[in-house]
Amino acid sequence: MDDAGPAVHRRIGWSTGTWLNPPVRSLPLGDGELLVTAAEGTDFWRTTAYGFVHDNGHALLAPLPPDTAAEVRFVADYTEQFDQAGLLVRVDAERWLKTGVEYCDGTPQLGAVRTDGASDWSTAPVPEWAGRPVTVRVSRRDDALTVRARADEEPWRLVRLAPLAPDVEALAGPYCCGPTRADLTVRFLGWTAGPADAALHP
């Protein structure tokens, strides 16, 4: 791993996490991967611009204590509007952050949604990431979450810096949603945890 973060992460077994809104199907594979099929109409969003509250997305969660980081690796090979997968950090229904790749307006978008009562959304197109393994990492240190992502073994990109009080209990893990269709299946390649990033910038 490069100078954005720690050198060693340990694998988290899929059975370690607890499902928030269990999916239609979750199938562990012999090589340590997990196939997850999302239910139609699932999403995480609160109010802003769209006027609705959705809190029915699928997330497999475990504790994210201070001074730790979580990583999720998945294949971004979906092609329908608002298909999405990545990593969710959750305090409760009104305080959470999701980050990953969402298919929107004809192209994969790397982004993050932070919610504190109402949601906001930052996004940038990454058409070159289509069909490739993507890793997202959220590092928790002091009063902040640092979000990074990359495709394959490319350099890490800084995606978001967001506040999170150090005394708040939070959970984190892989998530996916299928807002507009019933047959989205995401192939998760791994889920790991380790120490928080040593620095905000290289």
UniProtKB/TrEMBL annotation:
One Pfam family matching this protein: DUF1349
InterPro entries the UniProt entry points to: ConA-like_dom_sf, DUF1349
Source organism superkingdom: Bacteria
Protein name: DUF1349 domain-containing protein
